[in-house]
Amino acid sequence: MHLIHTVWPYLAVMLLAAGLFPAMERRFGWKVFSVLPPIVLTYLLVTALAVSRLWQVNEAIHTAQSMLVARLVPALLFLLMINCDLRAIWALGPRVLGVFACTSISLFVAFIVTFLIYRHWLPGDNWQPLAALSGSWVGGTANMIAVKQAIGMSDAHLAMSLLTDALCYSMWVVVLFSVARLAPAFNRWTKAESSGDIPLAVAKPTGPVTSDSVLLWLGMALLAAALSGWLATKLPESSMIGATTWTILLATGAGLVLAHTPVARLPGASKISGALLISVVAVLASQSNFQGIAAAPLYLLCGVTIIAIHAVLLVGFAKLFRFDLYLCGISSLAHIGGVAATPILAASYSAALVPVGILLALLGYILGTGFGLVVASVLSALATP
């Protein structure tokens, strides 16, 4: 039975959940927070509340969820860019491309090996949902649909791909948020320099954070998000770049431009971006839906196996090529999550890495359909008696 049916109580729960664990960490400093950071606990708590059906996902609440994500994510990215140094990010170039290539290779191997493990339970054309999923796990849902159309996959099979994508992605996001605290030990093991040490603060904020500076930054961020969304509707769209992607790019660009002006010295941007980040995570978690999980246990098992193999191989590549944990995590989610989720993870690692996450996710969109079709051809050949 649903207790919440309207938007305002839903928003109140989101804000309370977003503030609860950061406040507890600040007040008590319990050791649990060194294993599960507040942002992960927030994600888990709100997911549990969503699954328990505390609120009814009616038209009003669904509209509120969509609007909050559509407006708060660009506003968050705008604020995160205020203290970024593009020159330091540019210096990461070869490492970023290297970790992206290794992530793609690890996923390719993972899909093939997983199919070989389970192919006796996937007869006929039941390999097709994995092929479509591979397009999504390098690019996004648009790439999945493109692969589906190219290989003539049925709508019933598409449902399996979508369900596996959503559930395994949700699980993997929690893992990637959680491993952030392991970065120093991981980087010592791989002998890598942390990409999170990119220098910030092109323009040092002056003075303490005041109520007026908070209101000014919040107003600028929401205005940048609104203008970016409006301009996005005027720009050409394709199967790879739609209005959402344009909005994110425009808001990011606006923040980078403003970062090199005297306005960037106004204090408060980092404080507001931190609050928005955990609020966005709460709203994203509130959309969790595990209905239909019993309909596709084998494909869910395949999805978990693919991610496990991918993770092991990527750790091996990190050791071999001295990649740091942050770049590995961002590259992995850029493949599996896409352009909307990756900058959120990158921001939880280091605000300086947000542009890296966006660029890798866009590169995944470009390559996703081709990757999916290559996987489809290999799986088809392996499935042939």
From TrEMBL:
Segments passing through the bilayer: 7-24, 36-56, 68-90, 96-118, 157-179, 214-233, 239-260, 272-290, 296-318, 325-346, 358-383
UniProt KW keywords: Membrane, Transmembrane, Transmembrane helix
Keyword Transmembrane on entry: yes
A Pfam family annotated for this UniProt entry: DUF819
Membrane keyword on record: yes
PANTHER family listed in its UniProt record: DUF819 DOMAIN-CONTAINING PROTEIN, PROTEIN, PUTATIVE (DUF819)-RELATED
Official protein name in the record: DUF819 domain-containing protein
